């Protein structure tokens, strides 16, 4: 197991190198002049543009710029944002906690809600509740997040006034050792629910299917015959094995939420990393785009590793198959 | 034998009932939860407005956009300040000044009660430091043109001199500025953010911490900035012109217009810069009494690249395009949000604005005649023409309407929509090479309320390329008139020269497709008082004059 983990971690390096190269090339090929965007304004003196290019190394040939960037990366330096003129690492540190909180809340809602609904649907197979769950799941997966967020905002915030319209809040608790502010809890509700609904639908359907497939297994019959209670049979045997594919989806969705909650962040003015990276692309802020993408790549790989390790707990056969 | 699903079905039904009951209880609890956060604590005057993005910078030397200036103009002050209502220059850090007969030497006397937010008194040496900083090459300020009229500014910027020859600190409270030649809008340019005074001990920081913790001598000081969330300003108690009424200003960063509108309606904002238009029906009816409208010193147009075919050396063709487009329809029917059809370049309210300028009213018949005169009867033989716009719904709608109008006279116009970076590269080109955009939608905001800020900046041949003359317009007579107006002192004489120059560019050369004069429209809650609408734009409404009076 330890060897497996080490191999997986070492495998991250070529993945991130490839990601860094691809993103750098794509950003470099974008039409437009980053110096012009750094300068801003309506008209700009060409002498100022020259000065900016010199200051940021934008006048060097492309290979020189690339290797210079790579060199800094290998030293752990993600560079400085062209537009904000701040270290990229600091910008990521500013925005990632907001994305993390949102993603954790959304994935918990999706996982718990999805498994609950999927279980209910399996229990009440082919009855009204089952059909209702399937329809809701379909709606969840097919409704655009942007529209859904606005509708929830209009209903629960604007009309009913139960929750704030948007934002992160200004008075949430601060975690002192990382100097990050948590959102006010009521500000988290609508964005988390919005972001969770797509995944919730998928998880519900998958849980239902998985439970129905597992339900007739012989080992469950054996367990029941040996005197295990119905609840124990369900929780210790059926659910645990039915969860293996569900864990995969939850993990993938969590990783996707960490980088792809842009629409939700946009609708609810959530100060997350996804929106920040998208904005950086529009402004051709190459260091911030690169740094953000690399960071999310690392997170994605780490989440996948965690999922793999969780598999072993859920299904010990997976570990012995690997050993074999 | 029953299977597990069958056995669990009955358990599931019982579970379902328990769940539904639980959900009902939760809903009741949620109902009991409070409304969105109330307004300010008792007695505190708080004003909340929205910016669609974080300001790219709060460094006055680097500030070039209205997002940055929305905050910067409240944190900093320079020698002089622009009265937002009258657009006249008035004293700020300088209590008074004298100007020599030849208009070359300005001597400023500073107030002795001005302090930076860190408590230190402002002196004449701070003027020298701030001006040198703006001109220093390594700062790469896009606004250094503000001080380039100073004698020796160019040599200092190029690193050929350690000091600015035209800047003299006479004593602790007196500074003299000498120009290379008379420059009529010089005082107006000194009121811009770039000429703000900053303390050396903060702005010499090699780690540039001032970017997140700016220090000026304006009416407000920065007390908080959470990226993509909010910026918080607090009243500066020692502000030399008197402490503002407001205790706190909260700038909310909300990108999505619809979301921002909902937040305004729910009471989370006291002002909103993008009110709904009449085309939004019920929402407009609900809020129209809270909309404040006022002119904005900017002109919208579609530029012609006169260095590229088919517009090169073909003013007749450009005039044909102008007559073909129905600008009144565009601004009164299609997008009725306050802009008005433009007849020329200088916007209303600026000295030199010409009421009698005929412009190009909608006349398709005349357009067809001119098209034939230009060598393209019915549009036949006209090379492909593409209109470039940067990504925005409004630009797209304008482009599509212009396309439709031109089609009626036989011109097949293509539209190309790209993001800002690619757009500016296609429009501006370089000083040597034109951009590839034949036509492009643009708007020019006047940095200072003087016709020079638009005529010279956008159409003088000295500024061909990224400086502002994207059209590569080169007319010696136009240049001569604008150059002459720059050094005159009599406002009426200057205005007459600018009107003459404008007529050449508009009626002789049709250098643009003249689209609109802008109007600002902003929502304000009824309890916000002391609003001074300004042609400088909604983000230049002086916050230090606002007060909140909630009944």
Write a structural description:
The complex is a heterodimer of chains A (324) and B (551). Chain A has 324 residues and is mostly helical. In chain A, 76% of the residues lie in helices and 1% in strands. The radius of gyration of chain A is 24 Å and the shape is globular. Chain A starts with a helix and ends with a helix. With 551 residues, chain B is of the alpha+beta class. Helix content of chain B is 31%, strand content 19%. Chain B has helices at residues 4-32, 66-75, 124-135, 153-157, 186-190, 200-203, 257-265, 282-287, 315-324, 327-334, 364-373, 393-408, 420-428, 452-459, 476-487, 491-508; strands at 46-51, 80-82, 89-91, 94-99, 105-110, 167-171, 174-178, 220-226, 230-235, 248-253, 271-272, 291-304, 340-341, 385-390, 413-418, 439-445, 512-524, 528-529, 547-548. In chain B, the strands form five sheets. In chain B, strands 11, 12, 13, 14, 15, 16 and 17 form a seven-stranded mixed beta sheet that branches. Chain B has a four-stranded mixed beta sheet with strand order 1-10-9-8, with helices on one face. In chain B, strand 4 (94-99) and strand 5 (105-110) form a beta hairpin. The longest helix of chain B has 29 residues, at 4-32. Chain B is globular, with a radius of gyration of 28 Å. Classes of the chains: A mainly alpha (324), B alpha+beta (551). At the A-B interface, helix 3, helix 4, helix 6, helix 8 and helix 9 of A face helix 1, strand 10, helix 7 and helix 13 of B.
